[in-house]
């Protein structure tokens, strides 16, 4: 099981955002994994089973998603930098999305 998961919700449509391309990078810019959100807006397995402590980056291709649902968004991509501090902890990084705003937090 991956140590990292994500979930994207489209607040403007009130439903999960399916088909959002997501790429996981190391802090130095190396690509670790890529996936797209499923029908429930989730990527349940993203990256390796274990992430070493350090900085990482998730990049969500929101322009591709907005085009697929016939919307125009202000942010063509959302980049979330985060830090793994506990080697054994699970990291869930949700994204709440709309065409002109987004928010994120550390989930459980």
UniProtKB/TrEMBL annotation:
Coiled coil: none
Reaction it catalyzes: 5-hydroxyisourate + H2O = 5-hydroxy-2-oxo-4-ureido-2,5-dihydro-1H-imidazole-5-carboxylate + H(+)
Entry keyword set: Hydrolase, Purine metabolism
Top EC group: hydrolase
SUPFAM superfamilies: Transthyretin (synonym: prealbumin)
UniProt: substrate binding residues: 7, 42, 105
Task of the protein: Catalyzes the hydrolysis of 5-hydroxyisourate (HIU) to 2-oxo-4-hydroxy-4-carboxy-5-ureidoimidazoline (OHCU).
Protein name as it appears in the record: 5-hydroxyisourate hydrolase
Organism: Galbitalea soli
Species lineage: Bacteria, Bacillati, Actinomycetota, Actinomycetes, Micrococcales
Gene label: uraH
């Amino acid at each position: 099981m991956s140590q990292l998961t994500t979930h994207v919700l489209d607040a403007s449509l009130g439903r999960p955002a399916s088909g959002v391309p997501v790429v996981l990078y190391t802090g130095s810019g190396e690509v670790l994994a890529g996936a797209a959100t499923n029908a429930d807006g989730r990527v349940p397995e993203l990256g390796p089973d274990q992430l070493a402590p350090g900085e990482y980056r998730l990049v969500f291709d929101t322009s591709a998603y907005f085009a697929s649902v016939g919307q125009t968004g202000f942010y063509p991509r959302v980049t979330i930098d985060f830090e793994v501090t506990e080697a054994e902890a699970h990291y869930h990084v949700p994204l709440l999305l709309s065409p002109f705003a987004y928010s994120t937090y550390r989930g459980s």
